[in-house]
Amino acid sequence: MGISEESSTEPLYEKIWVKYTLSRVMDSIILFLLVLLLCYRVFSYDDMNHHSYPWFLAFMCESWFTFTWLTIISTKWNPSYTISYPHRLFSRVAELPSVDLFVTTADPVLEPPIITVNTVLSLLALDYPSNKLSCYVSDDGCSPLNLYALVEASKFAKLWVPFCKKYNVKTRAPFRYFDSNNNNEATAPNNSPEFMQEWLAIKDGYEHLCSKIQNATKKSIMLDQEFHVFSTTQLNNHPTIIKVIWENKEGASDGVPHLIYVSREKNPNHLHRYKAGAMNVLTRVSGLMTNAPYILNVDCDMHVNNPEIVQHALCILMDPNSDKEVAFVQCPQQFYDGLKDDPFGNQLVTVFVYIGGGVSGIQGIYYVGTNCFHRRKVLYGLSPHHHIQNGSKDLGKSSKKNIIFGSLEEFVESAAQALEGKKTFTQNANLCNSLEAAKEVAASGYEHGTDWGNKVGWMYGSSAEDILTGLTMHTKGWRSESCVTDPIAFMGCTAQDSVVQIAQSQRWGSGLLDIFFSKNCPIFGTIFGKLQFRQCLAYIWVTTWALRSVPETCYALLPAYCIITNSYFLPKVIHYYYGHFSLILPNYEIVRYNMSTLLEYLKTGLSMRSWWNNLRMSRITAMNPWIFSFVTILLKKLRILDYAFVITKKELPSNNEGLDKNNVNAGGRFIFNKSLVFVPGTTILLVQLTALIINFFGWQPKARSGGQSSGFGELICSIYVVLFYLPFLKGLFRKGKYGIPLSTICKSMGLALFFVHLSMFIV
């Protein structure tokens, strides 16, 4: 194909900068008011006398809030997004590069195989030459059910993939395509007799596939033939299992891509490093089998929603200016089963638009663990300034190769090919020929004494391996880019109840704070590495989520403390002239903050109810799961206790539709259990209610001489906290899973009484 001079000079993508003038002004006003409030507290401290306890605590909390808001403003100041031009890609390159596709799953109960199957089928049906794609599925649960489901899915893929490409199907996850509400494609313009006949045959084939997987779930799979290896396996003690489920031996560009099942070796004597360890095994196994220069990794529930997403991402990665700058391309997370008005605050729409867009305008968006395209050579530890040829020659030295990549010569050779940026690697005519070598690099002890997880691959040291890996790349000087397409690239499922969401938030909080209190702290990345200062602030914002639990909890308890002890923490009238200003300041600050965040939600098309739900959940999350995240990391650093990786429960929508988004009883109501994570929130609520009762009946002690009593401001703040905890208030009177367990209420009552008596003692 000839390449015109004009097409060779046109960029494959453009970076568009957005100017949110109104948002900048409002954010700056909020920061100014926070600083002004802090100055007021400092200069009025001498007038406090013996009432300095709440005043000093308020000053400390507000100092933290000011710093946090500064990091947010810095992150959001110069937002940007990219526009890619896939049609230019085809005229620019003579041959499209290979891409390895990684899918990870870890528990067939919490992550049902039918979800993984739909994700895999959507990847196999990408609008990309099939001989350039290879799909690797990591099964960390070592489940014969997952292998069985993938084997059956490969048979259906021989019908599904050609059908999608023949009729240009947009939705390539079968369960979404055959959704009764997906009328746009069910009655497509291809509504010919031939199309309808094939459509019915494909639909029957998918229903048969679902039926076989469902029956296998209920019954035990016969562990014979290819499943015999599972007869002696245990969850955390089993050999490596690698199966080439389907191989595109003919190299047909319109066939079904390679599909490989990988379950790495688990040994009780070796750390397996959770998801990061699984990703590194996939990297090594794929390096031996196909060694594509680019890698796409997705979670098992994140199916392809835009079949042209590979071309869009490659426009960014293959642009001449990006080769020595961009390490990875991150696509946003969106969810097909999100409940109406986002009652659990987990759909992250505005986070990706404003925070994600803002950080894209600095050094690049965070890596969030899924929906991401990577350069293999960057995962192998390459820095932007590193000379590739010299680096690959150094691998020839035996003193270095074992330390970096391990002792297997075949893999070191493949790594050298990837680092040199060669488009082709001597691939095996038969993938099965590399199985023995692949099993060796998937062994539990292969990484011992190497740089895997430290300088190479996905980074170890935190359950938030995604943020840590992205931070490491940014610290080396790499950039990243976001890729937002229409339609959105990937869609996944989100937590459908409060218990799952809070457990997920606790894991995030622990993993992120673990990064902040480690050698990988973003502050060190700026001082000793190439992490830009504003990018450092962006990483501080996200890695200190759990640290916010301390000031937020203290600040939430301050109004109740002041009401109970008849003291105050909000500015009062000190002099007639300045008094009016001091009363208005905190109220104006709160109004400005709420208006600023509300504006962001409305501009992204979300409702006011969605804004309130997210505002409420941000407070509940900070004062409940993040408290335990903070305590967990504190105990870990003291070497008293370590934390475990928690797998998030995923559910396929029932009846192909999921929960009725308008049915409040089906989704959106808080669910409680006996976990201690609900104790802090229940305690805070009971303390506020106690304070309001004391105020209502006038049971407050007299204000001490020289001091002022609590006033209307403290009362409003206490009611404000109760509104945030309205789901907990309803839970006090409900029964079953929607009610707070009696044991939790008793524990919280004891803590609330202790707080009231302690407040009276230290007044």
Structure description:
- With 763 residues, the chain is α/β, with parallel strands linked by helices.
- Helices cover 50% and strands 8% of the residues.
- It contains 29 helices and twelve strands.
- Helix 2 (21-43) runs antiparallel to helix 23, helix 14 runs antiparallel to helix 16 (409-419) and helix 26 packs across helix 29.
- The longest helix is centred in the last third of the chain and has 28 residues, at 576-603.
- It is globular.
- The model is unreliable at 1-6, 424-428, 573-582 and 656-665 (pLDDT under 50).
- InterPro entries: Cellulose_synth, Nucleotide-diphossugar_trans.
- Mn(2+) binds at residues 275, 299.
- It is found in: Endomembrane system.
- Keywords: Cell wall biogenesis/degradation, Glycosyltransferase, Membrane, Transferase, Transmembrane, Transmembrane helix.
- GO terms for molecular function: cellulose synthase (UDP-forming) activity.
Give a quick precis of the structure.
The protein is α/β, with parallel strands linked by helices and 763 residues long. It is built from 29 helices and twelve strands.
Task: Describe the protein's topology.
Layout: H1 5-9, E1 13-17, H2 21-43, H3 52-76, E2 80-84, H4 86-92, E3 99-105, H5 113-124, E4 133-139, H6 144-166, H7 174-177, H8 183-186, H9 193-218, E5 241-246, E6 258-263, H10 274-289, E7 294-299, E8 303-304, H11 309-317, E9 326-330, H12 349-360, E10 372-375, H13 376-379, H14 388-394, H15 398-404, H16 409-419, H17 435-441, H18 465-475, E11 479-482, E12 490-491, H19 498-516, H20 522-528, H21 533-543, H22 549-565, H23 576-603, H24 608-623, H25 625-637, H26 679-697, H27 712-724, H28 726-731, H29 742-762
Parallel strand pairs: 3-4, 3-7, 4-6, 9-11
Antiparallel strand pairs: 1-2, 5-6, 7-10, 8-12, 9-10
Helix pairs in contact: 2-3, 2-23, 3-12, 3-21, 3-22, 5-6, 6-9, 10-17, 14-16, 19-25, 20-21, 22-24, 22-26, 22-27, 23-24, 26-27, 26-29
